[in-house]
């Protein structure tokens, strides 16, 4: 693994785990934008263009959400849906290995949760997406992504408790 991939993986790990532990949805999105950029660079350095491209779509969706550009965010989400549908058809026709679906579907669930959901629905969709990314990270041999995803799932459990506590206090 190159030094650049290791540095970007470390930054992505720290920003991603921290973002998921925060109970505030707005702060989660801000840190998650940084996290997506770092992961995109990490996966590009490892030669994984599919994973990197899904992260660029995520950055557009999250950035559009943060800036109030709903049309751009919706267009990026539709690109995400189209890529996921095309990948499913490609796998069903035997043209692509099923492992190619992992980053695409993982990104779809995470992007949808982060950009369009709040509280428990956000957390639930991100958990589904992170499990798919864990399988993808394992299949391409990214130690940073495997460790980060495991820690992210733990941080999401902490977030879920924090969100639940805040809702109960109201």
Automatic annotation (TrEMBL):
Coiled coil: none annotated. It comes from the Bacteria. InterPro entries: Uncharacterised_HI1736/YgjV. Pfam families: Imp-YgjV. The chain crosses the membrane at residues 43-63, 75-94, 100-119, 131-158. Keywords: Membrane, Transmembrane, Transmembrane helix. This is Inner membrane protein. It comes from Roseivivax halodurans JCM 10272.
């Amino acid at each position: 693994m190159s030094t650049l991939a290791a540095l970007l993986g470390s930054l992505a790990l720290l920003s991603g785990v921290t973002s998921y532990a925060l109970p505030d949805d707005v702060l989660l999105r801000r840190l998650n934008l940084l996290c997506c950029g770092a992961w995109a660079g990490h996966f590009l350095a490892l030669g994984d263009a599919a994973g990197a491209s899904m992260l660029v779509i995520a950055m557009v969706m999250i950035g559009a959400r943060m800036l109030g550009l709903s049309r751009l965010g919706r267009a990026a989400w539709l690109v995400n849906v189209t890529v996921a549908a095309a990948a499913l058809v490609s796998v069903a026709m035997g043209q692509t290995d099923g492992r190619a679906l992992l980053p695409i579907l993982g990104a779809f669930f995470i992007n949808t949760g982060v950009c369009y959901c709040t509280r428990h629905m956000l957390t639930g969709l991100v958990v589904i997406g992170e499990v798919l990314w864990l399988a993808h990270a394992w299949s391409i041999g990214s130690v940073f992504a495997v460790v980060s995803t495991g820690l992210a799932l733990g941080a999401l459990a902490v977030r879920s408790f924090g969100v639940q506590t805040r809702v109960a206090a109201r």
